[in-house]
Predict the structure.
Amino acid sequence: MENTDFQAQLQTYTDSKQRKIKPIIFVGHSLGGSVATLATLWALEKRLRQNSPFCITFGSPLVGDVRLVDTVVRENWGGNFCHVVSKHDIVPRMLLAPFESIAEPLIAVFPYWQVVMANDSKNVPDSFIQDACRTLLNIVLQYTYTVANYGFDSLRELDGVIKRSPYRPFGTYMFCSSEGAACTDNSETILKMLHLTAQSHENASDKTVQDCFSEHIGYGSVLKYVREKSIIGSRIANPDSVSSYEMGISLQLEAIDFGDQNDHARIALQNAGNIEDKHSTNVAKLAIALSEAQCNMAQLEWYKERCEKEYGITYYDSFKKHDKKDINANLRRVKLALFWDDIIEKYKKHELPSDFQSKNKWIYAGITYSRLVEPLDIAHYYCTCKGNGNYLQDGRPTRHKVFQKWMEDKEETHSSRGQKARTKLASLTQDSCFWAHVEEALKELANLKQGQQQELESLEEFENNVTRMINSHSISADVFLEESSFMVWWAEWKEYKKNQCLEWNSPLYKGHI
């Protein structure tokens, strides 16, 4: 959408100095819903104004794959989308099946639908269009029944078992029928409900085909029914339910004209509620455990300070010696590793909310942990491997990689907002792998002295990286303690370069080393 009339008009609107800022709402039907969704994503990504845009679609096909869904979750954009889906409309469900299987009938049907909607026509389609729609519906039905045969416990588990469509839902979905509407914003539950509601058709009969046409072009009537039901209310489908929670599920099933007889639909909604409760419980327990973890972090910060002030060395170099004074620090390092590994394991098993990795509390807790404790993991690695391994390639724990990814995603999200430049050195080196780079630089320098000239480029790049870190104040002061591993490398590197060229002048001199 770059350099388009749409962009120019929207920019003019958002730049206008109105006393009262009006909301931006994108609305679309059918393929127009997909366009509205993409336009909303574009506006959200550009952050054109403080008031976020909102998107409402009617009968829109699915848009985007798992990566887009993850991005929407990470950016907390899910609440900006509401997708209205009618009971018999095939369009929101057609991309449940792999695209190549529906391409031919879809190409035949969509031009007709566009003409009908443009002219507000209610003419019955000819036999060719009806056959194409029937074929499209049969393909989708066959696919959803194939999925059902494998079980609905977790659609994720079907990846690699059968060929699945890459498209996934995001945002809030409102499932509508003449009886009312039911809403959910859980992507997995939405996907199951799209499958299950598609199976409300046993076959693609002439009436079913006609329903697909009429409901796709008749969302005005659907919304009228929903509005009337919301005003006059409706009876409780299961008055004997023992809890308000069960009654709520019964109401949702009745609202989409499913009734209590569909066990799969009931289980899907129940699971969505149970999963949400389990996620909340897990997060609450982790928040309590985080308090203990922070106590261990405080002890390691004290250990770091003690090494610098009492022994005049970095806590990295002290820990690498594995002296008695480091035993307590090692114990706390292990406890913290167990705590964060448990979080990563729960996250991978989907036992935490899908937006867990976008929460500032956990992002900053994780990255602070890595910046303080990963140097100890690096020291432990090089102490035990006796210099024969490469931590960056073979020894780095998954938890540190995950926290780095979370932080990079957050920084990418906020890169356009600008950040204040540091005015003094960081208390913790921002690159938690810094000491691993130092260890590799020491080995490369030793190789270079033995005539392995291929190491020279890597060493010069390391020197330049340290210069950038100093200039950006993203390195901590303890790195420059006289006996630190880095200063050992620096002394040897200076000696080598001076022997090669007496007039050599390093950019690090300007960094005040």
About this structure: Residues 87 and 197 are 7 Å apart (CA to CA). The longest strand covers residues 81-86. The radius of gyration is 30 Å. The chain is about 60% helix and 5% strand.
